[in-house]
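Human: My hope is that you can spare some time for a protein that puzzles me. I am handing you a single protein, as its sequence and its fold in token form. Could you go through the record with me and say what the backbone is doing? Take your time, and here it is.
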Amino acid sequence: MLNKISMKLATILAVQGASTFPASADTWWEIGDQTLYFEDGIDGMGVLVYLTDTNEPNPNFKLFIGEMEDIYFGRKDYEARAYYGYMANYASDQDCGPSRVDAYGQSYSNWSYAELTFGADWQHFTLVLDHCGEGDYIETLQGTPGQ
């Protein structure tokens, strides 16, 4: 099971880093007492990270969600739909089998399939995590706009 830190989510979809394109994902969602941040777009995926209490990216977890890179770089034709990817847990002692490598080349052996579904206005979303792809969904989180 993923540790509790990975399950306490809240969100801000904002942008960090230098980009020649404006990002359109500066929206906050709150889920519990933490924040999820739209950190990057790479290899067709959006990269979302959990922020610490000091608003620094938590290096232990990242979500890689397919078909979201162009949203990071400014696509605004939002629609109600699901996006799929995975969550890498870099700090867990649990092992889902052979190690994998993320889009940045960092290896991890604890992961979950991720399904991120947005409502039509992108004001709300649901994140479902399936630990080790075992078909046992361990967490379903609802996101709502933050302040």
